[in-house]
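Q: What would this chain look like folded?
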Amino acid sequence: MKIKISVFILIFFCNMGILTEKVSANTNLQTLVNGIEKHYDVSNLSADFSQTATVKAMDIRDFASGKVYIKPPNRIRWEYETPEQNIFISNGYELWIYKPEDNQVMTGSASDFFGHGNKGANFLSDIRLIRKNFTISEEKKLNNKSVLKLVPRNRSADLSVVYITVLVRTFDIIKITTINSYGDETVIELSNVRFKQEIDDSLFNFKIPDNTEILQLNE
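A: My prediction, written as C-alpha cells:
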C-alpha cells in the first residue's frame, strides 16, 4: 500500500515541537542546550536529509530524502526529492506545500499552522524559542553524541516525545525523532550540514504556477 509522502510531511511538521529546558543542576545539559541555541541562532545553513515515517497501527513504513535550507529566523525550505517531489516552504508568515506531480499547492498562514512557534519547522528555523514549550533531559550519551529527550508540558495526541541526537563538540543536530500518542514515529537524519551559507531570500517565497489547484491549510 502506497501513501503519498505529503502525508508524512504533515505528520513530521505537526508532530515536531520547539524545546524548553527543565530546571536542573546538570551543568553539562545546560552547556549543551546553550551551545545548540548559539549554534543555530546566527547562521544560515543547508543540509541533506533522509526521513523514515512509520504508522504503527497499519505497520507501514515510508522513506523519503531531499535537501533543507534554513535562514533564521523563521525561514525554512524542505525539498523532498524521493520517492516523489514535494516542496515545503515557509517565509515566517506564509506557508506553501507544493506537490508538482498532483499539480496542487496547499497554502496558509505559517503562524496558524505552526501554532505560533509550537510546531516542527520552527525547531531549526527559530532556535530562539528553544526553551519555551518542552522539558529537556539527557536520555543517553553515545561516544561523542548526546541524545536529548524532550517532553511537552502540554501533551496531545499529536506529540508525546521528541528525541534529538547532538554532536557534543560541534552542537550539530544530526537526528530528530518524533513520536505521537499512537506510537507513530518520524525520524529525520541530517547529513552534509553546511553552516554560514549564502542563501537567497527568494528560496523562501513561492509563486504559484498557473492552473495549479490551491487548497487552504487553515480552513
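The first helix runs from residue 5 to 15.
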